[in-house]
Write a structure and sequence with these properties.
The complex is a heterodimer of chains A (about 290) and B (about 290). Chain A has one domain: MetI-like fold. Chain A is built from twelve helices and two strands, in the order H-H-E-E-H-H-H-H-H-H-H-H-H-H. In chain A, strands 1-2 form a two-stranded antiparallel ribbon. Chain A is globular, with a radius of gyration of 23 Å. Chain A starts with a helix and ends with a helix. With about 290 residues, chain B is mostly helical. Chain B has a single domain, classed as MetI-like fold, CATH 1.10.3720. Chain B has ten helices and two strands. Chain B has a two-stranded antiparallel ribbon with strand order 1-2. In chain B, helix 1 crosses helix 10 and helix 8 runs antiparallel to helix 10. The radius of gyration of chain B is 24 Å and the shape is globular. The chains are: A mainly alpha (about 290), B mainly alpha (about 290). At the A-B interface, helix 1, helix 3, helix 4, helix 5 and helix 6 of A face helix 1, helix 3, helix 4, helix 5 and helix 6 of B.
Chain lengths: ~290, ~290
């Protein structure tokens, strides 16, 4: 007997393991290169000045690298988008799982997936040429490209994410729970809010986290529809300059491995850490939930 | 008592109407974007628009180089990410199961899926463009897109493997086939349609992506033909952005912008539609 086939099996397994390791490798490389290119900026500006500085003038002499207004802008658009997208996404998910007629559900679910597939540049374009002029006329604003428009457009991008994850969570609630509640005389609405939604609560939490992570990292929408003014917003209708749009707008002009270039990578690190935190929290919630359900 | 019951019914009806409204808002959003693009873009669409190169400093002519560029980028990225993704999924689902290594990989995949596309752009620029020395080129662009779409391919491929009944594998083992043989001849053929669905979704994501290729693979205008993987390309998504926000004559090129956006949306939604139909077909076949 030779054991060549067995050896071949081991070899194949190892090769596949190596390939599967690629994702981990890429994630490590992303972090490595972000830090390698981003950290040198802290030779020019101190960490506390970087985070609390009020002025982002990367091309002035001497340059100023304060990202506080950009941070505030990113958080503000994410908050604006989430306050719309979270209720809308969850309500749509509840409608899909609890109320919609199966036929209607089969039609609407793919439509919502198609909404997720719309390229972000098209949503940004729509915000820029349709929503912005409309709002400007309607509310008599200086500019339609502002925090509100960007938040509205981001909301439409994150609703499908929130909806599909929340829908999975609601779907996983055992139907015996619903039956028990209905048998006790509760209406379908009471069953939905007091039994089904609480049972799927952690999954819905995951959905919100993923939706927010999508909003804060989205580039094209905020680049085209947020107005791009690096100031602290005073109202919902002020133009803002969130982090992703800064990177996208300025990278082409930054001289290679100059201070500006390193500063843009440094805010890239900040953005990466933000989304990483959102994703880790989302995974933690869903992991914990899986253990409880078992 | 009946009054109380009536109130509860009324509240139920009211709340259900609100939920219906929420769902309607989504569908309305999709249709308003599409209707607006079709309304404004259809007049710009013509055979010449699709087959000519831009002329007169981008204010006239067609978008042929953008279409070929987007196609090359998307197909090229899929050619890299599909084999990688399928192999990763096979390892995680068929071999590793719940081993610690597989858990780390899953953590990596999940977090890779959440990285913003602009960060992929930064990574692609510093790694593929500069460190690997590929320059701003088709190759750098498609590799960046491949990394970006990898989590989508892995996720859908794993789902497809999960749908293959264990009994098929057991039957193959019982006939004396090795594990690799079983995977090649039994599991993969059964899972392939599901994997293709994922591939199409990855393709559509890559075609619509802008921020990741801005500094890695595309230029706004290139006179030069795309003759090798080291030449930069033009892309539909980037074309819309530049024409709409920093072009020289934004108002004059409006019809071009609508036309380009319409072509991109038709391309992306068309691919998604095929994927959905394919998946529906699969589900029906499995149901029988």
């Amino acid at each position: 007997m030779n054991n060549a086939p067995a050896r071949r099996e081991v070899l194949i397994r190892r090769i596949l393991a190596g390939v599967a390791g690629c994702s981990l490798l890429f994630l490590t490389l992303i972090m490595l290169f972000l830090f390698m290119e981003g950290l040198p900026v802290f030779a020019v500006v101190s960490v506390s000045d970087f985070f609390s500085g009020m002025y982002w003038y990367p091309t002035a002499q001497p340059p100023e690298f304060g990202i506080f207004p950009l941070l505030v802008a990113s958080c503000a658009v994410t908050l604006a988008a989430s306050s719309l997208a979270v209720p809308l996404g969850i309500m749509t998910a509840v409608w899909l799982t609890e109320i919609a007629h199966p036929t209607l559900r089969r039609v609407c679910k793919p439509l919502i997936e198609l909404l997720a597939a719309l390229p972000s540049v098209v949503i940004g374009f729509f915000g820029m040429v349709v929503v912005a002029p409309l709002l400007q006329d309607l509310l008599d604003l200086d500019t339609g490209l502002n925090l509100f428009t960007a938040g509205l457009m981001l909301a439409f991008m994150s609703v499908p994410t929130i909806c599909s994850v929340a829908e999975d969570a609601l779907h996983a609630v055992p139907s015996s729970l619903r039956a028990a509640s209905l048998a006790l005389g509760a209406t379908r609405w009471e069953t939905t809010v007091r039994v089904v939604v609480p049972a799927a609560f952690s999954g819905i939490g995951t959905a919100c986290m993923l939706g927010m992570s999508r909003s804060i990292g989205e580039t094209m929408v905020v680049l085209m529809a947020a107005g791009g003014a690096g100031i602290l917003p005073r109202s919902l209708f002020d133009p803002v300059r969130p982090i992703p749009s800064v990177i996208a707008a300025e990278m082409a002009e930054a001289s290679f491995r100059g201070e500006h270039y390193h500063a843009l990578f440094a805010i890239g690190i900040v953005l990466f850490l933000f989304t990483l935190a959102f994703n880790l929290v989302a995974q933690y919630i869903s992991e914990k939930n899986r253990r409880v359900l078992r | 008592m009946p009054d109380f019951m009536k109130m509860r019914r009324m509240r139920e009806n009211l709340m259900f109407s609100m939920l219906r409204l929420a769902a309607l808002v989504n569908v309305f959003a999709l249709f308003s974007v599409c209707a607006f693009l079709v309304w404004n873009g259809l007049s710009a669409l013509s055979w010449d628009f699709l087959t000519e190169v831009p002329r007169n400093s981008m204010t006239e002519g067609g978008i042929l180089p953008c279409i070929t560029g987007t196609t090359l980028l998307a197909l090229g990225s899929l050619a890299v990410s599909f084999p990688l993704g399928v192999a990763s999924a096979v390892y995680m689902h068929e071999y590793a199961g719940g081993s610690p290594f597989a858990r780390y990989i899953r953590l990596g995949v999940n977090n890779l899926a959440g990285v913003p596309s602009i960060v992929f752009g930064l990574f692609g620029m510093s790694f593929f463009v500069i460190a690997c020395g590929f320059g701003i080129s088709l190759l750098s662009g498609l590799l960046t897109l491949a990394v970006l779409t990898l989590p989508i391919i892995i996720g859908t491929s794993e789902e497809a493997l999960r749908q293959v009944p264990v009994t098929l594998r057991e039957a193959s083992f019982a006939l004396g086939a090795t594990q690799s043989r079983t995977i090649m001849s039994v599991v993969l053929p059964a899972a392939l349609p599901g994997m293709l669905t994922g591939g199409i979704l990855g393709l559509s994501r890559a075609a619509g992506e802008t921020a990741a290729i801005m500094f890695t693979g595309v230029v706004f205008f290139s006179r030069q033909e795309v003759d090798s993987i080291f030449s930069p390309v033009m892309a539909l998504s980037n074309h819309i952005y530049v024409l709409a926000s920093s072009g020289t004559e934004i108002d004059k090129t409006r019809p071009l912008q609508y036309g380009t956006a319409l072509v991109l949306v038709l391309l992306v939604l068309g691919m998604n539609f095929v994927a959905v139909v394919l998946r529906d077909h699969l589900q029906k076949r499995r149901g029988q």
